[in-house]
Amino acid sequence: DVAEQLTPVLLDGLTEENLQLVSNLKDSSSSCAVDVSTVWWEAAGCRELCVVTACESSVSLWKPLASDHWGKVYTWQLTEIPVIQIVPLPDTCNLVCIALGDLEIGEIRLLLYSSENNSFQQSLVKTGNIKAVLGLKDRRLVSSSRTVQEQQVEIVSLSVTGRSRDGQTLMPPEETVLAFAEVEGMRDALVGTTAVNSIVVWSVNLKTGQLLKKMHVGYSYPASICHRVYSDSGLLFVVLSHPHAKESESCGNPAFRVIAFNPKTARSMGVMFSSLPPGHTGRQGDVKDASAVAVLTSGAIAVWDLLLGQCTALLLPDPAGSWALARWAITGACLLAGRWDGTVCLYRY
Amino acid sequence: CSESDLGPISLNWFEELSAEAPP
Fold first, then answer.
1. How far is A250 from A257, CA to CA, in rounded Å?
2. ipTM
């Protein structure tokens, strides 16, 4: 009994009041921030939520110190291929996954600490023309990659030292898969969005990698990216971002949508709609629970409540520089916001 | 969301689609 809100709801005079700056960390050796994330890290019997920052040639692990300060624990050097993404691995400890490449991902690596050798190490997980990668629960990684002839969609299991022998190939759709999302509460279901705007659903139990259904999102929202999927009352609710959607009179400038799909009939219905603040364009987003965040081309960061369909906070670029990155921490209502100069600010939302 | 908009809804959609899909 909820209907898509076609009229964008925007708050006038949005400010940072919903975001409280907690601390910031600056890597003096880092020039350009590429990505930021959080990871659970255990050392000497103490398990802490640490921050991981990436620039093109290195990835650093930061641990919390007293008084909201952060100390660098270690920096992995990655000099051969540029780092382009940190791939969060849910429910794992002492393991950082990164994607490296030029225009697209060519390599996936694990960064870890080996207690056997008492040293920080890195190991290669996969190479290829990788189009999308996502960390799954139970220390697994799903990726889509392309050769000239075909697309491979594969789930690999990770050991503490790298790629384990257990793997599973999923039936690929004809079109390239650009993003994945686990179906919350259903370990055996996985969803992907494709280059021609379809939602595909796989069964990923140990026996099969069947492609169960392909459903179309609609032509108005090209190259939609799935962020979050949950199943409720026989429907699949998919949170999508629309990095390339054009502004329209009826919908404004769409940033995120929640769409309900009936997997049995492939019919769908819009549930909630979030628009960009007026005068802003372009976005690169992240979603956690009902909170969505995106970096806009103006150098601002916008935050939305997806249940309300409203923009709830706006971080404008300030004299210290434009915003380049925005990610939610894996736990707590904490926003990680990165500037081009490598500074990462932690905000409580 | 109602069945008139989305067609017949099944709580067991995953099991049913798994059984229908080619191996």
1. 14
2. 0.92
